[in-house]
Amino acid sequence: MTNISDIARIAGVSVSTVSRVLNNHKYVSEDKRKIVQKVIKEMNYTPNKNAVDLIRGETKMIGVIIPYNNNQAFDQMLHGVINKSVEKDYSITVLATKYSKEKELEYLSMLKNKWLDGIIITSRANSWETIIPYTEYGSIVSCEYTTHSEIGCAYIDRFSSYVDAFQYLKDKGHEKVAFTTARGTESISTEQTIAAYKRVFGGLPDEYYLPNCFRFEDGYYAGEQLFGRAVKTKPTAIYANGDEVAGGIYKYARSKNMNIPNDLAILGQENQPIGVALDLSSVDHQLIKVGEQAFELTVQKSRRNIEIPYKIIERSSI
């Protein structure tokens, strides 16, 4: 089997010259480049990627840890990462965890084994204290805010966005506001949402908080729970943790001939296509930009903290 030394011997050049040609290094004369490329073609030589990566000192591969796919928030961040990876000629590996701590650690070990140049964490299962030792082996960037100096982050001020969302509904005259979340109180995002609600409204009736909402069907079920059961006081507004969930709530409300926004105001999140189609107001965290910036920080091996601004998009659902 032909190897890089054979190519160098036949072409009459050094192994390092062949390596530079394989890596498209600019410091090779055009004559030598053409000779090496001609021999490579004649010998039908395919370079061993691991060997090339070892010579180059990088894999041009970035891993993206996500808890699960088919979720618009994580899909948007991943979309942003891929946007920039194409521009910079990097490959992206999606590392799904379902919030398994063990699986997450397996993926982080890929840095130690030099299979990846860096890892972007969209949402994590392990503590930062567990994750930080892996920064010795490559760049790790978070899509949530962290004060740890070893970790760069591209993030939104989620707590402030939740406060602004609830205050927006209150300013529109709503005091009976329900909300949905993805995970329960083990999630930092959920804890922040609950804290923001209490800051704006002073307290939280148990029946106004519905966790485990991820998709359209969950939103429809949330509507059933809020209006089809013995809730003492029906909400006049709902803040959904995604426009797909908001779309499900909208579908339920319309099935009961409720008028939007007179009978029920709906505020979604992430400015997704279904929200645009249904004309739902939405809190846009600009997650595509978060993903793009996270990629830039990763390839730059930067530990900076970059805040991405959010905005509330007003439409006819409120």
From TrEMBL:
PROSITE patterns: HTH_LACI_1 (PS00356), HTH_LACI_2 (PS50932)
Domain HTH lacI-type: 2-56
Gene3D superfamilies membership: 3.40.50.2300, lambda repressor-like DNA-binding domains
One Pfam family matching this protein: LacI
Keywords assigned: DNA-binding, Transcription, Transcription regulation
Transcription among keywords: yes
Alphabetized GO MF terms: DNA binding
Domain of life, per lineage: Bacteria
Listed name of the protein: LacI family DNA-binding transcriptional regulator
Organism (species): Heyndrickxia vini
The organism's taxonomic lineage, starting at the top: Bacteria, Bacillati, Bacillota, Bacilli, Bacillales
